[in-house]
Design brief:
single chain; binds zinc ion; 17% strand; 65 residues; alpha+beta; 3 strands
């Protein structure tokens, strides 16, 4: 059983009552809000993009408008 992406909280109601939905891997259902959703791997993050965005956001927040 390979569970690479296991959600611990429902992204919609933040409940923890999540169960696998159907037989497809990566699909989950929340028994609290009765929603079914799918987790998907999009790709790796680009570290340079993260650092640059953090720097720009801190600069924007520190500078008075
Ligand atoms: Zn939910």
């Amino acid at each position: 059983m390979t569970s690479r992406a296991t959600p611990f909280h429902c992204p919609y109601c933040s409940d923890e009552d999540l169960r696998p939905h159907g037989e497809k891997h990566g699909e989950w259902e929340c028994r609290s809000c009765m929603r079914a959703f799918r987790l998907g791997y999009i790709g790796m993050l680009n570290p340079s993009q993260i650092s640059s965005s953090q720097i720009s956001s801190s600069q924007n927040s520190s500078s008075p408008h």
